[in-house]
Amino acid sequence: MSAFRTEPPIRRLAAILVADVAGYARLMDRNEERTHARLRLLQSDVIEPLIALHAGCVIRLYGDGMLVIFPSATAALLCAVQTQRQVFEIGKALPAEERLQFRIGINVADILIDEREIAGGGVNLAARLEALAEPGGICVSQTLKDQIHGDIGVNYLDAGLRRVKNIERPVRIFHVVWGRRPALTQMRHRFARFASSSFRLLIGGGALVLLLLALAWTQSAPSPEARLIRLLSLTQDAGGARGVVSRSPSQQTRRTMLQGRPRTSQGPPG
Q1: Which domains does the chain have, with CATH numbers?
Q2: Taking the chain (270 residues) in consecutive chunks of 10 residues, what is each chunk's mean pLDDT?
Q3: Which residue, of 71, 124, 187, 188, has the fewest CB within 10 Å?
Q4: What is the pTM for the complete model shown?
């Protein structure tokens, strides 16, 4: 008998949640046994009970990550928010460099389900959203956000359209603000969006200012004839101070000097 399933998979609409621990390799490098024990404790005492509470189903556990499906967008987001809150509260008792912080991405899509695995483009997008989330944060698609009805105690920060790997069209994503330093998180994202949208205006404005300064300098700079007259005037003043009488050059002399041609010498008077 073949070990592979031959029946067609079931197609179903579901909320897909992907999570992993930010900086897990660094934490394991510092202390493998302690990091592994803390992760397993969080999974057994916090994450798995919350998944069960919201009717989720764990599809896969892989190292520090997990793939879970939920029957609705609201159930998936509530589970994610409650998980992040509890993990954050537990981590406050530890030094900052030893805290475990999860990144979570959630999407809603049609998926293919069999006895062993789930598949589909929506699963891939959930994984990309998880990679875009902050440590301790939640990143969701617009599809999921649009299916959240009622107030569940969170806010959304629009991160705009993003191109993600292996997804053909740009995807609109949102960062969920669930109360973990909301003011700081909101300020950081708003500054990032302001900086990206204002950079082109700054470059254009700087170029315009430089152009105006160059035009103003060109118009205010004295002509060569004016500079020559000024130089001769200064020479005359200096000669007068020494008791030397200097006569102002005629217009023909000035024109000849400006044109760079020597004056035609005349013979001595008869």
Answers
A1: 10-180 (3.30.70.1230), 224-258 (no CATH)
A2: 64 96 95 95 96 96 94 97 96 93 97 87 95 96 94 94 88 88 47 49 64 67 60 57 49 54 49
A3: 187
A4: 0.67
